[in-house]
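Quick one, T. Sequence first:
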Amino acid sequence: MDFLWYLLIAVLSGIFAGMGMGGGTFLIPLLTLLMLVPQNIAQSLNLLVFIPMAVINIIIYSKQKLIDFKNWWWISVPACLISTLGALLASGISSKVLKIIFGAFITLIGVVQIVVLSVKFFKCKKKNV
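Structure tokens:
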């Protein structure tokens, strides 16, 4: 039965990743909450799963000419360096602390999204009045 849950989580994570929303935002909480996988293992799995999904998405978006290859390195090089430092840091932190950090991060993203959408909504509403 666990296989079916892992398969469902993988499919949903892949859908979110394919839409550019970050499958890990979905994958990590489901693995830790539903499947009781330790946080550091879930984050490691997310990084491993990211590689093939990223390659496939790069191919698809490249064919549609949606990637700016002239400037990709401005984001890629610093992201690779900082993610390496983050992985080294995370490997030394307990699973419990990682859960708290990840939960705070996801909460912060949610709050920012609500504020941004609210501002946009009220600006549009104000223009129509």
